[in-house]
Write a structure and sequence with these properties.
Distance between the termini: 67 Å
Oligomer: single chain
Shape: globular
Helix content: 10-25%
Mean pLDDT: 93
Radius of gyration: 19 Å
Order of helices and strands: EHEEEEHEEEEH
Strand order of the largest sheet: 5-8-7-6-9
Strand content: 25-35%
Structural class: alpha+beta
Number of strands: 9
Largest sheet: 5 strands, mixed
Number of domains: 2
CATH superfamily of the largest domain: 2,3-Dihydroxybiphenyl 1,2-Dioxygenase, domain 1
Length: about 170
């Protein structure tokens, strides 16, 4: 007798898959570009008038899309609603993350948090439209905390020493 149809055994996704880009609704394109290009340092790759723009790091066609198609002059979603929690932007080194912190400090962009997760160090903030942003770098895998039984990775949340992170800018 055949077994009843059920949920298939989960199979891992191809390890080469990654997140190509994120597209954000913004209220004011110029204000968003001032933040993503002027403060964070992304490069403007293409623009569609006052309605949309695409920015990247390293010449990729775009990592972040910004548009006002449904949101011109709008306000952020209120607390207690669903939607994007944050966009995580990974930096290649601790020194590069330190440079991002320096840029935020110079632009007087407030942090909402700063954490050491064992596997990574992260800065949390909001863009001018209230979209959550995480700026982080991953420690090398061999330095990740050992996983507990039954876990693939062990992460935690501890305070991040921002002064020690900023000291990386001077060393670079």
């Amino acid at each position: 007798m055949p077994e009843p149809a059920g949920v298939p055994e989960p199979r891992p996704i191809d390890p080469g898959v990654d997140i190509g880009h994120v597209h954000l609704k913004v209220a004011d394109l110029e204000r968003a570009l001032d933040f993503y290009c002027g403060v964070l340092g992304f490069e403007l790759m293409q623009r569609y008038g006052a309605e949309a723009a695409f920015v990247s790091a390293g010449g990729y066609h775009h990592h972040i899309g910004l548009n006002t198609w449904q949101s011109r002059g709008g306000s952020p979603p209120p607390p207690g609603t669903t939607g994007l929690f944050h966009v995580a932007i990974r930096y290649p080194t601790r020194a590069a993350l330190a440079d991002a912190l320096r840029r935020l400090v110079e632009a007087r962009v407030p942090l909402e948090g700063a954490s050491d997760h064992g596997v990574s160090e992260a800065l949390y903030l909001a863009d001018p439209d209230g979209n959550g942003i995480e700026l982080y770098w991953d420690r090398p895998r061999e330095r990740w905390p050992q996983a507990e039984e039954g876990e693939k990775v062990h992460m935690y949340t501890r305070p991040l020493d921002l002064e020690a992170l900023l000291a990386e800018v001077a060393r670079d």
